[in-house]
Amino acid sequence: MTQPHRRSRAGQSALRVSFEFFPPRTAEMEEALWQSVTRLAPLSPSFVSVTYGAGGSTRLRTHSTLARILSQTPLAPAAHLTCVAASRAEVDAVARAYGDLGVRHIVALRGDPPGGAGAPFEPHPDGYKTSTELVAGVRRLGDFEVTVSAYPEKHPESRSFDQDIDVLKAKIDAGATRAVTQFFFENDAYLRYLDRVRAKGIDIPIVPGIVPVQNFRQTASFAQKTGASVPRWLAARFEGLDDDPATRRLVAAAVAAEQVLDLVDRGVEDFHFYTMNKADLVYAICHMLGLRAPLAQEAA
Ligand code: FAD
Predict the structure, then answer these.
(1) Which of 61, 146, 151, 155 to mutate to test the pocket of ligand 1 (most atoms within 8 A of CB)?
(2) Positive or negative: CA dihedral 241, 246, 250, 252
(3) pLDDT 10s digits, 112-154
(4) Residue 111 CA, ligand 1 centroid: distance in Å
């Protein structure tokens, strides 16, 4: 019997990846982050991004993490920026400081209210009122490349997919040139969303955000807040493994590899990994995608 052609088995040198990190709170976390950055850097990601804690709570740590990446690695960092609980002048000052540091790429997001995801969003009286306004503001400030978010299962506050995608379109009209998606586990949901987006004439890359499930309970609770659905089959895969971290890790690697390789088979060539500052699973998945550190390539 002839096997169907599997792009994921063809050796995928054209695939591109990016990695997301969060700014560490303690010296120990800083060490863990740095180990992950140095492990993943040789895979030559298109960019690495550093998040901006809810309501700007990590402003200084985000800045110093970006500074370290710029001074100690060849990586191109993208800085996340939100407009929650800050005036335009304050947000602009943060963006200018990113620019002064040498950052040329901003991931512009509205952000969640101080009460967390799900609480109603109130713009700051002197602030950017929407992510669209923020994108336009950042573009006015300098020659920044701007990435925005996209929601394959729609943002929980959106009235409909149509309205959700209209907001994405407005962000692109304001100057965004790439979107990274909220994480998802059903690839069909992402591909259906992509069809809807393309049908509205949007042609920028909509890069799937992939979260390796380092901790199922944590991921499921986060998913609930952000409107990402957790399929029953996924819960079943992790069932009974709460006290078995070794098996959990193997299952997590298998689940993520299954998701990513299926996307490759279905034509996807860009991936954004939510690393949670841990390299191992992401490194293994990238290896399966055919990405190699230069030394490993020479030895092969
Ligand atoms: P938006 O595009 O602003 O949409 C949010 C909601 O507002 C949608 O329901 C949309 O329909 C509605 N909306 C927007 N404009 C209008 C309008 N003009 N009229 C009517 N409705 C409108 N959060 C952080 O705090 N820090 C981070 O570093 C961070 N990084 C993220 C990275 C990615 C890739 C993603 C997907 C999310 C990230 N978030 C981050 C979370 C994000 O801030 C929240 O999901 C937030 O609730 C929405 O902000 P947004 O820019 O993603 O969405």
Answers:
(1) 155
(2) positive
(3) 887 777 778 889 999 999 999 999 999 999 999 999 999 999 9
(4) 6
Question: Active-site residue 157, yes or no?
Answer: no
pLDDT digits (tens, 9 = 90+) for 155-184: 999 999 999 999 999 999 999 999 999 999
All structural domains of the chain, each given as residue ranges with its CATH number in brackets, are 12-299 (3.20.20.220)
According to the model, what pLDDT value does residue 295 have? 67
